[in-house]
Specification:
alpha+beta, 14-stranded antiparallel beta sheet, 5 helices, 19% helix, globular
Length: 262
């Protein structure tokens, strides 16, 4: 190919990229509305400002859930790595979230530096689990997560349930509980379960192999004793051992929870 043709193509591509970068956010959304409807994606945006590349929306509504102060920014240099990346921030009365999402040409997805804060009631509403009654706040600090299709390849982070409380079958105050997640060299995902010294004592280990096999084991107990309201309730979940700890142990395959992975 002659050199002048290469420069011409480069100039045309650069100009098209410039147009996309400068396209107002409200104009971009106008073009996307039909696509969102066609794909049955229940998203609505209002009060759009900025550009398609770097902009914000005063309100985002997803399946009836309202989020305020939504902002996004694409990272153009990642296109040189054959992937598209976007940083997102959003807030509502009961939720705040920020982080970066990337997707490559193979469809692999990566999340980085994700921080989320959501009330238990709001999370159950988002997940459409009305029968469960929980209180407290979930705090997610996700350093990195990589997935390919429905296969989780790598994850590193912590999930904390602060001021945890269950309302079913009766009010049970648990305190703080957490899950520290890491990935071993052989691809096995490991989860360490623990507590913050509150009413519930929790210790546990979860492993998930690349082939989908999982192993869960550990124990919990009520620091107020087996005869407390919490202690008696835990006895229905696990079997108490000689040390007064209710043990749990389960193995299987993640495919058993296919209804959650759809």
């Amino acid at each position: 190919m002659k050199s002048w043709i290469k420069y011409l193509l480069l100039g045309v591509l650069s100009y098209l990229l410039f147009l996309i970068v400068q396209l107002p956010a409200n104009k971009a959304y106008y073009f996307l509305e039909d696509l969102l409807e066609e794909k049955n994606i229940p998203v609505e945006l209002f009060d759009l400002k900025g550009t398609a590349w770097h902009g914000s929306a005063g309100t985002l509504i997803y399946e009836g859930n309202r989020f305020e102060s939504v902002a996004w920014e694409f990272h153009p240099l990642d296109l040189l790595k054959a992937k598209a990346s976007i940083s997102v921030r959003l807030k509502s009365k009961e939720l705040s979230l920020k982080g970066m999402l990337s997707k490559n040409l193979s469809g692999d997805v990566e999340l980085q530096n994700v921080q989320a804060n959501v009330s238990a009631t709001a999370l159950l509403k988002l997940l459409k689990i009305p029968a469960v009654k929980l209180k407290g706040t979930f705090l997610l600090n996700l350093a990195q997560m990589q997935s390919s299709g429905k296969t989780l390849k790598y994850v590193q982070g912590r999930l904390l349930w602060s001021d945890a409380e269950s309302q079913f079958p009766q009010k049970l105050i648990l305190g703080d509980v957490f899950a520290d997640v890491s990935t071993l060299d052989d691809g096995v995902i490991k989860v360490k379960l623990g507590d913050g010294g509150g009413p519930l004592e929790l210790r546990g280990d979860v492993t998930l192999s690349p082939d989908g096999k999982y192993d869960v084991k550990g124990y919990f107990s009520a620091r107020a004793g087996r005869q407390s309201i919490l202690g008696r309730s835990l006895g229905f979940i696990g079997r108490y051992n000689a040390k007064g700890k209710a043990e749990f142990n389960r193995t299987g395959n993640i495919s058993e929870f296919g209804f959650l992975l759809k």
